[in-house]
Specification:
heterodimer; A: two-stranded antiparallel ribbon; 21 helices; 76% helix; B: mainly alpha; 75% helix; globular
Amino acid sequence: MDSPDSIVLTILLFWPLVAALLVILLGSSDSLIKKGSIWASLLPLGLSVYLLFAYDSDTGGMQFEQVAKWIPQLNAGYHLGVDGLSVPLIFLTALLSTLSLYYSAGVINERVKEYFFLMHLLEFSMIGVFLALDYVLFYVFWEISLVPMYFLIGIWGGENRGYAATKFFIYTLVGSVAMLLAILGVYFATGTFDIVEAAAAQPFAGNLTLASLAFWGFFLGFAFKVPSFPFHTWLPDAHTEAPTAGSVILAGVLLKLGAYGMLRIMLPSFPEASVYWATWIVGLGAIAIVYGAFVCVAQTDLKRLIAYSSVSHMGYVMLGIGAAAAVMTPEALAGAVNRFGLSPQAIQDSAAMALNGAALQMFNHGIITGALFFLVGIIYERAHSRDLSRFGGLATKTPHFYGLMLTAAFASLGLPGLAGFWAELFTFRGAFAIMPYWAAFGTIGIVITAVYILYRIIQNVFLGEYDPSKLSHWTTVQGEHADGPTDMVGFEKVTMWPLIAAMFLIGIYPTPLVKYFNQSARELLAFVQNLV
Amino acid sequence: MGDLGYIAPEIILLIGGLFIFCLDLAYDPGVGKKSGLSYMALSALFLTAALVAVVFQLDISDPEAGPKIAYSMMTIDNFGSFIKVTIFAGMILTTIAGGRYMNRRSGNQGEFWTFFLMVSLAMSIAVSANNLVLVYLAIEFLSITSYMLAGFLRENRRSNEAGLKYFLYGSIASAVMLYGISLLYGATGSLYIHDIAAEFSLLMGESTEVSGLAFAALPAMLLILAGLGFKASLAPFYQWAPDTYDGSPTPVATYLSTASKAAAFAVLARFFIVAMASFEVNWVPVLAAFSIITMTMGNLAALRQNSVKRMIAYSSVAQAGYILMGLVAVTSSSPSAMDGLNGVLLYLFAYLFTNVGAFLVVMALEETVDSTHISAYRGLIKRAPWLAVMFTIFLLSLTGIPLTGGFFGKFYVFGAAIQRQYFWLAGIGMINAGIAAFYYLRVVREMFFTSEGEGETLDVPMALQTSLLICTLATLWIGVYPSAVLDWVSNASVQLLSVVP
């Protein structure tokens, strides 16, 4: 099973933990901690880039697998591996972690040691979730990702941070425990905690009641994280109160864990239940798109607006996943063929396209919303306010900031040529062939998205005349008094440009990225078709 | 040595207790000059000797071998030995940490540590007893010594209240239990757990219909459950617990909520799984109901506490509910890796280190700022960073977050419930985990989310720190690599289940 370079994943996984411990043990001065942390985070970033190149997407499947004993009494092992779905997401995690550390080095000056310790710990747990192929291991990383984020929000957050942190923790904990029960159910049905083996054994096949129970157990766990409407209420609070880097990681990676879990666990393990409940997933996704967008329009707080836009955008992911789930099994496929009069191949292609769209949206949302949260942080450091009514006419005062915000906002809106467009196109193109009405309903969200992006963000903040009376307490990013808004400084530009570049790259030439996702999407569909 | 060797741990504790008692009488350096720390050290020494003796009794070479019987009244098996290791470990940690605390508050150190060893002796006998009269005597012995320890601070009204309350509830519970035992004797003609089990299985035959004198078993079972449930602080017999834990000297509260509870669960397990094996269909729903009420009541009450000591007291009531969930899901017929009994043992083991640790943190704050109120924990990260970190680890373990022992405890009892398809029970446990997280996090919030108190440092005694560190390491060890403990646990439960008729 072990390939010669399987140790790569173990190093990738444990290096952030080593870095966290080094911060605690050797961190004698703040500047040493900051510099050391940034350098340390380059190793996982480098390894994730190596994986992008070394992963053979023509062969597909799980690669770089590593298996070792952990709890033999339970048949639970240390099993790591990556496939076309996880490789780009690991890259995303490492990239956003490094950028967050770099940006934080510029703005965090309080309790520095704890902060950088927690950031490394967070990276460790997130990479762990993407690598783990054993349920116990998966759950362990899943849960411990809560702890550092809880402290990041609670210690470095805004006014209402205690409330937001607790809400975040308890909501996700309840979801996780539901998932734990489902994991135990799968274990007793299959006798193994190995995610791949358990899926191949098809737990509860033929027993729709039990399969649905397990399905909903997992769904609760993942839906709280995504967060799917109506489980999203912790998100605006957590995002608004979190420090900038916390919001970036939360939106950029933690939300993806939920969608990743659906693709990795729910669809392959419970195909029948997935087909049965697919309309629900699609429906919740489509409602989230429209509802999230409408709520955005009503926001007065810039950060809260971006937070709600995450609810809306993660709805695309749910829509894509649900649409593909609806035609997974041979019977469901045959049913779809009868209903729409398309060839089975066309339906399958649409399903794969929907899955590709969902996966692309996960990646792109990480890049775009990560960038937007950084930008909100950048303006907040100067204005110490996020109230939309106090901004206006910043375009002339801060042109660099304006340009980057414009790019990120248009990418979020789905402008062709930027990253967001492809994900939306794929998702809707795939979903239309399978669930036309819900997909049509979801498109309302696209229109509303244009409203809040263009009107609330671009027009409100940047266009028009600059009025100094609206907001009098401007500072520079270092906290010194300033007469008005000042433009971005060096370290902020360095943080932003990689993300902006990624938006253009993916927007112009998405093929390399789609190749990874397509491989795993096809595999997933073929796996289920052959099994049932 | 023979039988005498089997009860070596008990003999060591007895000698130790008497030795300290006599030493205290004989050696009198004058008023106000006695240092209790030497008695504390002696007590720790004898407890360690007893622990070593138990470890030698653990027979993991042949898990299929049957248990040994000492003087016909005590069963020496891996199950009992495992619980004794747990209990003694907790008592040692409490002793080391509590020496200075008690020495400052009371002049009668000889008596205190005598009773402390006697309590350990009583628990040790209760865990091994296979005769119901010996069970009763051991529980009575445990109770009476505990009443005295709970009320040990004579000048302190709250301590008096703690002792008195414990005594009033406890004496009634004992009487009720004794009545239950007499009913069982009437029905089966024996007081030996194995004989009772055999007699009932004969009476019941293959049917689940209650016949003959077997009907007496059901009221007897409830009465004995009331007596033992009192010790284990199960709802609805838990009302004494918060007041007693809160008012008692903290070392006493520590063992009452951990070691004493472990002993009670051991007796419960032995009684229900072996003696009442024929009535499993009857006691499973009863225990399930107790489990649900216990965890829910404990958690809801803990939500509103402002004293951290009292909050942990309520939380340990709730934790008993989770442990009981494991007992509900025992599968005596075909034990698997994730059996309910394994869950009970693993949970108890992990819970012991976690809860002892939590109480020791409370003790550290009492020692330094003389307060148990939640406001005393504000900004603890600045005043005593390691203390705050360790407390967080204990609280996360009580919540059931991975990489701590508490997670695998919950994992096992939930697993056992799912295996028996008690989905509703697991579901209620899940909701309770969410409620519990709320009040545990409240303390974390106070400790970390503010930078108040920067500059001051708390001077926590060295011995207390050592105990705390051991608790932390044990909690993390069980959470990261539970394999070794799981082997002991399954050896222990296999031997208990092997004698079920």
